[in-house]
Amino acid sequence: MEIAVIGLGITRFGYFPGLSLENLAAEAVQKALADAGVGPAHIDLACSANVLASSLQQEFTLGQKILWELGIKKIPVLNLENACSSGSSAFYLTCLAVQAGAAEIGLVIGTEKMHLPGNSILSGAATGAAEAQAGFSVPALFALRANRYMHTYGATAADLALVAVKNRRHASLNPLAQFREPITTEDVLNSTPVAGPLTRLSCCPLSDGAAAVLICNKKRAKRYQSRPVYVAASVLLSGSYTNPPSLTGWEVDERAAAKAYAMAGAGPEDLDVVELHDAFTIAEIMHYEGLGLAGPGEGVRLLKEGATSLGGSIPVNPGGGLLSRGHPLAATGVAQIAEIALQLRGEAGARQVPGARLGLAHCMGGDLQGDARSVTVHILKK
Amino acid sequence: MEIAVIGLGITRFGYFPGLSLENLAAEAVQKALADAGVGPAHIDLACSANVLASSLQQEFTLGQKILWELGIKKIPVLNLENACSSGSSAFYLTCLAVQAGAAEIGLVIGTEKMHLPGNSILSGAATGAAEAQAGFSVPALFALRANRYMHTYGATAADLALVAVKNRRHASLNPLAQFREPITTEDVLNSTPVAGPLTRLSCCPLSDGAAAVLICNKKRAKRYQSRPVYVAASVLLSGSYTNPPSLTGWEVDERAAAKAYAMAGAGPEDLDVVELHDAFTIAEIMHYEGLGLAGPGEGVRLLKEGATSLGGSIPVNPGGGLLSRGHPLAATGVAQIAEIALQLRGEAGARQVPGARLGLAHCMGGDLQGDARSVTVHILKK
């Protein structure tokens, strides 16, 4: 890819009843514009990602509404939804648009408000109406996976809880994270049961927030940003929907990672920092293995050794992850990429991974037949 | 652009309570695959357009669901919404993806079911909550434009009605159209009043339906299709939201058309056939002028001369238009492009424009401050 990230902006994630989708997005976009030192008139094309506004607020073409309020007009605007990977899919698509020459500077926005009446996303179906009626909600699906993983590899609920403890420790260093108060393994195990072994603190929260990223052709990146970060790989793939599915991992993770590593000419051993889709504690461990950071069944060992903590050999979710930074659905994928860019720029403050030169952002959306509907893997380099 | 259309499929548009979104899409995709002579495994990337499924059916990542049922998996899938221009925006985006080298064969799907409980799309807001409360629904907005146009240029309600009469006559020649029984000016004027001067027959209907198109790099088009059609221009732009807006036209129409004509190296005088966004009778007349088929205030004359009828110098909406083919929102933009491709292939049957070599498809989505949120213009050539 011939693409560079030249600007980024993230809002605080949390509970913001007084802020509209447009308010949240405006803050993120204005931060990204300021970061790149460009004005609204420089934007040639925009892609806005959102999942819930149409169902909860009867809001369509949200991107145009956001941009209108910012005075960004007369350009191609696309509104994208890809479940929890909406933001990173919007990044993927905007990279293609810039690569195809349709824009010099492309804007990617991910925005979500989840604290709204009628939001049944977590109690809703993982895969379809029949599954929902049978109680097969998203947490139940991940609980099933957790039990299978524990059974297969001898992991314990306390092992899984360590993911939440680590990511909260990272979040305590991120001023924009939703939850920053450190927690212990006992806190996780003793919090409200959701679907055994998963408790409230094993599950990502409901969050409001937005994130924005500006990209351009890498040849022109230094016109706008003295510390551009380059897109070494951009991959989006859907599942293979094999039946029966593997419950201890996602085949699409491995396929997307392999494609991304090939594009980047690098392997998992070359990575300095990773942001991945820890919607539930068990998910982070399984994604370690899917991305090749650990072998099958070796994820817990990697975690317990401290390798994936800040200070370890391959810090994962330095921003706090979905579990503690928060998970405003479509904002997440953009925020992950922005966090990796910040890390590669050496601007991640107290949570900086020293000398980070190569980073990976992984996002997953939806479930179908026990497989993911959508996985993105982006590799960024300094 | 280096893109060719190599396959197309359209369902009948109408009222299909027994068919799901997936059923409708499957028919369109299977027709498109058969048309190009390729199998599901040839699809490298897909973009699915839909507007209402998330709000009316709590359905997310619809594209993956449609493709799963067809055995199309492991590929990048994007779900796009751009109001009434969702389908043509998906086409725009898929062209960019193929142009960027992300896919050899790209699939564009537009699917909509509007006959569903809770569908308030037509009584809903044209621009926002305050406007909706004030009764400023979509038909009211177009009625306001119609009155302004009639006042400015001396047109009559009977003049506007001729659009509905013409497009119904065209639809009578299209076996897939929703309404095929010829109507008269009196029928239009005497049908149920909606928002004066617009009556029921002056407004597009609620429709269910789907359409699909397959594209690939033009260099490889003949491997798949003996009669490929080439994309000479692909343009997507949002409004300029000027205040006060012009009520007798859309500035973005002119801007999008000018850009498309420049890309194609052609002008309105070179076109043989046009599909445009006749959501209401008045809209067709104003789009004649926006696309440069007629000068300001000259649209009614063009219509009354018969120039835009089949047999005239520049037939518009040979497929029956939104008014009579029907308007399943996200399916429309894809069906328009498919209709133009059929015309250029000489396969449009009783509604064929003889010798058509250059055609244009125009689609418009959403309204904001009296401007369109999104306009697409695609020019296809033989």
Question: What can be said about this structure in brief?
Answer:
The structure is a homodimer of 382-residue chains. Chain A is of the alpha/beta class and 382 residues long.
Report on the structure:
The structure is a homodimer of 382-residue chains. Chain A has 382 residues and is of the alpha/beta class. The first copy, chain A, has 2 domains: 3-117 and 207-228, Peroxisomal Thiolase, Chain A, domain 1 (3-Layer(aba) Sandwich), CATH 3.40.47.10; 129-205 and 233-381, Peroxisomal Thiolase, Chain A, domain 1. Helices cover 37% and strands 20% of the residues of chain A. In chain A, the strands form 2 sheets. Chain A has a 9-stranded mixed beta sheet with strand order 3-2-4-7-1-8-11-10-9, with helices on both faces. In chain A, a hairpin with a 2-residue loop joins β10 (358-368) and β11 (371-381). The longest helix of chain A is centred in the last third of the chain and has 17 residues, at 329-345. The mean pLDDT of chain A is 95. Chains A and B meet through α3, β3, α4 and β10 of A and α3, β3, α4 and β10 of B. β3 of chain A pairs antiparallel with β3 (77-81) of chain B, so a sheet runs across the interface.
